[in-house]
Structures are given as structure tokens and as C-alpha cells.
Design a protein that fits this description.
CATH superfamily of the largest domain: MetI-like
Largest sheet: none
CATH class of the largest domain: Mainly Alpha
């Protein structure tokens, strides 16, 4: 039997490739590419000079800084604490473990507005937690970071947890029996396996934080030039029927987010190659 015949037979082990590929392209086009293309089309209705004036306005630039800085801080916090939580849920047995494991997914199910109101009531100056601090938490960038950390935590936990479950505890025991201490075991055995999952969880949490609106709008205080996030400016322009201005700022966020996510995916690809080889 020739190699060509074997290739033709193995190529058709799972039928329906063309049908499934066509359905995938149709799905992606209707739900992803078409809505994104409308942003570009609406933006093209204004001149280049008007576009530059809108996206470089001091209020818009300040909102970019608030959105990206808080999203980055929340993503890094989720990487640290999400990895720790995933480790505890996988490696240890303790009472009410299943309940705590289920609570991790609560930000997915909880309406974002409800989360925003709850966090504001907790961290406001007269709130249950905020009253014990001499500095303000709500209505500051710190409050925004707390809200974004809350909604992004499950992304890191749920991406790291399956990888940890696939790492046998016997591997750690073998490393210890060969004389490696805990830090060496983590650095040379565990971390290389977790790094791609951690980067994936970070990128998901970061992307979600950039576009988050409901849970942030309450706790942020929405003070222009201080705690106003970019999604709020977009919503304000839409309420004023300034569709061109809203889509112009949305286009900036879209392009910037795409570049950042592409960079993160490239780093993840490099990490995979490094740890595999």
C-alpha cells in the first residue's frame, strides 16, 4: 500500500471537515467579524482630523490610562492569587472544598451590576470594610482594581486547575527524592507546565477587565480624568447619539487590545517552544 493511499484513508477518519469548517467560518463571521467591521465602518464616516481630535482628547486619554493600568494590575493579581487558589483546590483536602470550588465560578453567574453594587457597599467610606481604612477604596483606581480582580479571578483558576490536576504528585516526590528542594521542584518541574496556562488565564482576565462596565461603573465614581473608564465614555457618547465618536474610541480600544493580546499569545508561543525543547 502506497503512502498516498494511507494519507487519503487517514485524512478521512473524521468526516465532515468541509462542513464543519464552513459552519465555523460562518459563525465567526456573523458573531465576531461583522460586529467588529461595523466599528470600522462607523469610524470611517468622520475625517481623519476629527478622529484624531476625538481619540486624543484629554478626557479620552485619561480614560485609556485608567482602563489599561487597572486591567493590568487586576490581571497580575489574578495570576498570583488564582494560581494559589487552584493549587489549594487541587493539592489539598479540607472541609467544604466542593462549596469553595463552586464559589470560584460565582463571578460568571452573578450579574455585573449586582457585583458592582455589592462591592461598592462593602468598600465605600461607610461600608462594612471601607470604614476600617483611613484612605478611600471605593471611587478610586484601587476600587476599580478590586472589581476587576473579582470578575477576572475564575479565568485564571479554571485554566490553571486542569493543568495542575494532570501533574502527578509522584513527580514532585521523585524530584524530592533526587535531592531537589521545594523551590527547585516548583521552578524546574511545576512552573514549566503551568506557564502556558497562567499566560492564557492572564490574557483572558486582562481582556475581560478591559471591556468590563457593569461591575466597575458603580465603584469607580466615574470622575473625569481620575476614575473614568473608557467603556463609560463610549456609553456616554452613545447616549448622546454620537455614534461616530463612540466608535472612534472603541476602534482605539479594539486595535490596542488586539495588539496586546497578540503580543501575549506570541509570548505564550515562545514559552511553549522553550519548555517543550
Amino acid at each position: 500500500m502506497s503512502s498516498l493511499t494511507v494519507y487519503k484513508k487517514t485524512r478521512r477518519i473524521i468526516p465532515g471537515f468541509h462542513l464543519s469548517l464552513g459552519f465555523t467560518m460562518l459563525y465567526v463571521s456573523l458573531l465576531v467579524l461583522l460586529p467588529l467591521s461595523m466599528i470600522i465602518i462607523h469610524t470611517m464616516s468622520i475625517s481623519w482630523a476629527e478622529f484624531v481630535d476625538i481619540v486624543t482628547a484629554p478626557r479620552a486619554v485619561a480614560s485609556y490610562k485608567v482602563s489599561f493600568r487597572t486591567a493590568l494590575a487586576a490581571g497580575l493579581l489574578n495570576v498570583i492569587f488564582g494560581t494559589i487558589i487552584a493549587w489549594v483546590l487541587v493539592r489539598y483536602r479540607f472541609p467544604f472544598k466542593r462549596i469553595i470550588d463552586g464559589l470560584v465560578d460565582l463571578p460568571f453567574a452573578l450579574p455585573t451590576a449586582v457585583a458592582g453594587i455589592a462591592l461598592t457597599s462593602l468598600y465605600a467610606p461607610n461600608g462594612w470594610i471601607g470604614q476600617f481604612f483611613n484612605f478611600k477604596i471605593a471611587f478610586t483606581p484601587l476600587g476599580i482594581i478590586i472589581a476587576l480582580t473579582f470578575i477576572g479571578l475564575p479565568f485564571v483558576v479554571r485554566t490553571v486547575q486542569p493543568v495542575l490536576q494532570n501533574i502527578s504528585a509522584e513527580v514532585e516526590e521523585a524530584s524530592a527524592s533526587l535531592g531537589a528542594n521545594r523551590l527547585q521542584t516548583f521552578r524546574k518541574i511545576i512552573f514549566p507546565e503551568l506557564a502556558p496556562a497562567i499566560l492564557t488565564g492572564f490574557s483572558l482576565a486582562f481582556a475581560r477587565a478591559l471591556g468590563e462596565y457593569g461591575s466597575v461603573v458603580f465603584i469607580a465614581g466615574n470622575m473625569p480624568m481620575k476614575t473614568e473608564i473608557t467603556p463609560l465614555i463610549i456609553m456616554t457618547k452613545l447616549e448622546q447619539y454620537d455614534y461616530a465618536g463612540a466608535t472612534a474610541i472603541a476602534a482605539v480600544m479594539l486595535v490596542t487590545s488586539f495588539i496586546l493580546l497578540f503580543s501575549i499569545n506570541f509570548i505564550q508561543w515562545l514559552a511553549n517552544r522553550r519548555f517543550v525543547h
